[in-house]
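User: I'm putting together notes for a lab meeting next week and I want to include a structural view of one of the chains we've been expressing. I don't have a solved structure, so I'd like a prediction I can at least talk through. The sequence is below, exactly as it appears in our construct file.
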Amino acid sequence: MTTESAKDWRVRGRLFCSEAIGTAVLVFGGLSVVVAMFGDGSPVRRIVPNELLRTALSAFLFGCVGTAVTLSRVGKESGAHINPAVTMGFWMMRKLDTRAAAGYIVAQLLGASLGALPLLAWGSMGRSVAFGATIPGAGYSTASVVMGEAVTTFGLVATLCICLASRRLRPYTPFVIPFLYAVMVPLEAHISGTSTNPARTFGPALISGRWDGWWIYWVGPMLGMLAAILACSSLVKRISVAKLYHFETDRRRLFHRMAGTS
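Assistant: Thanks for the context. Below is the predicted structure for the 262-residue chain, given as structure tokens.
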């Protein structure tokens, strides 16, 4: 007879697999947009010669890939964190247990690695932009780059907290992200590349070999996440589960049990 614990682990396995697939789609789809927008020889550079406009458009489309993942079947299963900083934010809010948070982060890094591999098909165009790797901007101090990542991740996590805490705003959470990035990235990308996501940085670094300041893209987002959770602490009780959409889809009520709302 199957134990309750074994049934829960089967559900967790589905969550981790879904999270890996979702992160792979984000990395491949989102960074393909970056290569198409900025790679040497891309026709988009001639069609949209203004670099600031291309940056905003690229950020919006990248965000749209994340939105699509959130709305998809894999997002329905895992909640579509697709970002270790988001997962750790939910963990800090006690909406995830430690086993789930660790499993999500491992799945995200695995998914980022798998999603980055097909980017090699972009060839020289992809190599010209290091397959979308995030690299500290020339002339900026390490502290400035860390701060850039912290501030933009603060913006992401605080926005998620505000939306998820409001019953009126909650259904629109996935649709806010493309617009948020379309504003943040043109303002900050020249400093750090605006990763806000250690998994998004890990994937292209793995295939390009560009590990410049790799630790910054962990430290900065985690500092920003911590600041956002502290700033939004009064909203935490209103956030029901560790999901960005499909809130009531919850096998064995695992998300609700982890959040203490079952």
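A couple of points you could mention at the meeting. The chain is about 65% helix and 0% strand. The mean pLDDT is 97.

User: Perfect, that's what I needed.
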